[in-house]
Design a protein that fits this description.
The complex is a heterodimer of chains A (114) and B (114).
Chain A (H helix, E strand, L loop, with lengths): L2 E4 L3 E5 L4 E8 L5 E7 L6 E7 L4 E4 L2 E6 L4 E6 L8 E7 L10 E2 L3 E6 L1
Chain B lengths: L3 E4 L2 E4 L5 E7 L5 E8 L3 E10 L2 E4 L6 E4 L5 E6 L8 E8 L9 E2 L3 E5 L1
Parallel strand pairs in B: 2-11
Antiparallel strand pairs in B: 1-3, 3-8, 4-5, 4-9, 5-6, 7-8, 9-10, 9-11
Classes of the chains: A mainly beta (114), B mainly beta (114).
């Protein structure tokens, strides 16, 4: 069956450290993978997209890697801040599925403490 | 530019009642989606639309109907609400012409069915 698994439901780290979130997938064939941030009571907000032929993507303190052999994406937040506390969702497409349709993981709740 | 808006923000229904959730976007997006989000279940696709006048079933369509009479609006209907439909509902939209474009989410509607 198809699965998208994000590491532990909750991750707690100290301010200034690097947070690393994992997204593993099974029985999908994605052309790209996306990461979203969701704050309590709000809709998800897009952060980054990485395509299958890209190993790494960066945006300010964010870095995403994509390994199609391992079927895994890693999402890093460097120099983390309490304001980074939120739930982070990974999402991917699937070849053979409708163009634009995304499949979401359940999310990892990140808490950055001072 | 309001982005994606949803009406209403909160609603309480009794079992068997009906209601319609309205989603509107002002970005001229072709694609629109309805998701539900439940604790521990992540975002699950209910129905989606790839253009005006077209709709398709997602992962959990039972008990819901949709219509896309105008490009900017996507309506989600519950004909006979059940307690299992208590959830937070998110609408999203995206471009059609470039695969991999991010989805823009609305603020959500919190529905409770008693």
């Amino acid at each position: 069956s198809q699965k998208i698994e994000q590491n532990s439901e909750a991750l707690n780290i100290q301010e200034g450290k690097t947070a690393t979130l994992t997204c593993n997938y099974t029985n999908y064939s994605p052309a790209y993978l996306q990461w979203y941030r969701q704050d309590p009571g709000r809709g998800p907000v897009f952060l980054l997209l990485i395509r299958e032929n890209e190993k790494e993507k960066r945006k300010e303190r964010l870095k995403v890697t994509f390994d199609t052999t391992l079927k895994q994406s890693l999402f890093h937040i460097t120099a983390s801040q309490p304001a980074d506390s939120a739930t982070y969702l990974c999402a991917l497409d699937d070849r053979g599925s409708t163009l634009g349709r995304l499949y979401f993981g359940r999310g990892t709740q990140l808490t950055v403490w001072p | 530019n309001a982005g994606v808006t949803q009406t209403p923000k909160f609603r309480v229904l009794k079992t068997g009642q009906s209601m319609t959730l309205l989603c509107a976007q002002d970005m001229n997006h072709e694609y629109m989606y309805w998701y539900r989000q439940d604790p521990g279940m992540g975002l699950r696709l209910i129905h989606y639309s790839v253009g005006e006048g077209t709709t398709a079933k997602g992962e959990v369509p039972d008990g819901y109907n949709v219509s896309r009479l105008k490009k900017q609006n996507f309506l989600l209907g519950l004909e006979s609400a059940a307690p299992s439909q208590t959830s937070v509902y998110f609408c999203a939209s995206s471009y059609l012409d470039r695969a991999g474009d991010e989805q823009y989410f609305g603020p959500g509607t919190r529905l409770t069915v008693t």
